[in-house]
Amino acid sequence: MSEEIKLGWEEWVSLPDLGLPALRAKVDTGARTSALHAYEIERFGPASKPKVRFAVHPIPGRDDLSIPCSAEIIDRREVISSNGEAESRYVIRTNIKVGTKSWPIEVTLTDRRGMSNHMLLGRQALTEAVTVVPAEKFQQPELSFDVYHSTRVRKMAPNRALRVAVLSREANYSTARLVAEGEERGHVVETIDTTRCYMAINALAPDVYYDGKRLPRYDAVIPRIGASITSYGTAVVRQFETIGTYCINGSAGITQSRDKLCAHQLMARHKIGMPNTAFAASPKDTDGLIGLVGTAPLIVKLLESTQGKGVVLAETKKAAQSVIDAFRGLKANFLVQDFVKEAAGEDIRCLVVGGKVVAAMKRTGAEGDFRSNLHRGGSAQVVRISKAEREAAVKAARVFGLKLAGVDLLRSEGGPKVLEVNSSPGLEGIEKASGKNIAGLLYDHIETHVRPQPVRRRKTD
């Protein structure tokens, strides 16, 4: 900043890096350090590169309007306030804009609620090119608080660092990619073992605890709930929902998609194409059950089957009777489905993120295996899907309210048939087959829905 700039004792300023387009600041040459009103101040991130998150009431007296912010911590200092009390404050560096001029300044974070100006400019922020006229004010163009009531505020919001939790018990490819991609974007991503969480369930302070400590507030949670812990895992997700955390997939959607009977009933209700299906709990009328689906060959699968386990192809009616009798002997609940011959052992995995199919791959089973699961030795290659297939995948994910879903479907003579909707789809096969950064697309969705915007709370009397 080379040209001279004149400031009065009060000026309109903006802090664009923090998403604060208009603030009234007091210019005080008697104060060494600049200060910004902040509350709910919380440190997060690694000790080597700590960050701070906080909220700002940009308009004095308007506690119902709040802007969430975050920044890197550059220092922590003891500051003597105007009443003579010492306070330890986090220090951040950000750009200030006054009129057409912009320059970096250091700012301490403190609660200035009740003061007429929610920002104070100390002499450290005033460069040699700044002249202060103590008897005047608003020497620079005036701004307006009306900007906070405009939809432009969200568009002007900076790419602030987010705190994200990945609920996962396994250190697999998908978890590693979600952590790496988030950290590359400057976010703080923590892997949380779902089974080590426990919850305080009450109306006033519902919290989630982990290894003896209360978990911090996360901007977003990415659930990777395994089939073996569906009930407990969804309870943890439900607790985060209660707190108000943005969950990529909600507890209800995970539960419904994991329950194969419930999933098929929901898809049938919403007229989503799927193979003819019948459900039974150890029926005596085996022939009647088979007749509901059609003729052999048939697929018989346990309700709790995952990754192709508990799924049997019965090529003849006699074989189907034998399998059903065996499941009946185990007192197991199962589905019987029509076998789509024209699929020829292949299915399509559509990866849906935020209501859009972002990638699709064709999975082919290993030689001699009708199941196309990659975990069972199947292979995958990128595939171009039809409009009908795309619409079926999107609709299936929407029925369960899933923002991230792997929708498996078959190509049949009667159009696409949805087999399953997976709420914790693996990323390895689809990323390698499509060459797309699926984890990055997921973070694009998270950032769009979680990044700061004006939060207006209802005023109470």
UniProtKB/TrEMBL annotation:
According to its UniProt record, what is one Pfam family this protein matches?
A: Rimk_N
Question: Needs which cofactor?
Answer: Mg(2+); Mn(2+)
GO biological-process terms attached to the record: SOS response; translation
Q: Which GO terms describe its molecular function?
A: ATP binding; metal ion binding; ribosomal S6-glutamic acid ligase activity
Q: Which UniProt keywords apply?
A: ATP-binding, Ligase, Magnesium, Manganese, Metal-binding, Nucleotide-binding, Protein biosynthesis
Q: Which GO terms describe its cellular component?
A: cytoplasm
Q: Which SUPFAM superfamilies match?
A: Acid proteases (SSF50630), Glutathione synthetase ATP-binding domain-like (SSF56059)
Domain ATP-grasp: from-to ranges: 264-447
Q: What PANTHER family does the record point to?
A: RIBOSOMAL PROTEIN BS6--L-GLUTAMATE LIGASE, RIBOSOMAL PROTEIN S6 MODIFICATION PROTEIN
Which family, according to UniProt? In the C-terminal section; belongs to the RimK family.
This chain belongs to which protein, by name? Answer: Probable alpha-L-glutamate ligase
- Give the organism, scientific name: Marinovum algicola
